[in-house]
Amino acid sequence: MQTFEAQFYHGKKANAVNIIGAINPEKKKRILLCAHWDSRFHADQDTKRKNEPILGADDGASGVAVLLEIARVIQKNPLDIGVDIIFFDAEDQGHSTTKNIDTKNTWCLGAQHWGKKPHIPNYSASFGILLDMVGSKNARFAKEGYSLQYAPKLTHKVWKLAQEKGSGSYFVNEKTGSITDDHYFVNKLTGIPTIDIINRTAEGHFGDYWHTHKDNIDVISKRTLGAVGNVVLEILYQTAEGKF
Ligand code: AHN
Ligand code: ZN
Asked: N or C: where does the chain have the smaller number of CB atoms within 10 Å of the terminal CB?
């Protein structure tokens, strides 16, 4: 548990916690997997109950769920490399604006804290994968801008593998714009090449349930969660065998 004080853009502060789990902590070769575990305190994209928090079944919980299941699978099927799983806090409390002001730093407070102060001094990993909104029916994961900028080879490799494994309807061969998300700060602050697997519509928006009360269990598909989990597991076991 890495605790820190989150300073939100609206002036409030809160105690926040990044939750970190290390699998095979003694191994030198490591992969970083992450998601955010907070959910947005207000449903600002909704038309009603805007001041109430969202459940965040997709936006937050889906990534956590896939990573918990991955941890369970690894426990039963020994893996010869190290894996660090980080659930970042205070990702989703940022300033939502369409105006031309830079609000990047109001998002991803847990990743910003960890990036500046990793749980292990000089922590490094071969690469990182962020899962954000990976659970909805008909999810579409396009190659995201910062992933292509900071980790182009990894991005193309992951999409190629996903397509070979039959998940090409999710992992589409398209690009989408850069998204301020935890991986941006991991890339910038630690230099670990890190991609974001994140659902966007063909038009390049988030789903219509995004930051609304519709982001509940009804939008979640086991099939989507399974497809993402299996792709990440394949990457881990192939990496351990030197095949990825
Ligand atoms: C922005 O809207 C600037 N970033 C989206 C990051 C995010 C929010 N991921 C999930 N919820
Ligand atoms: Zn969000």
From this structure: N
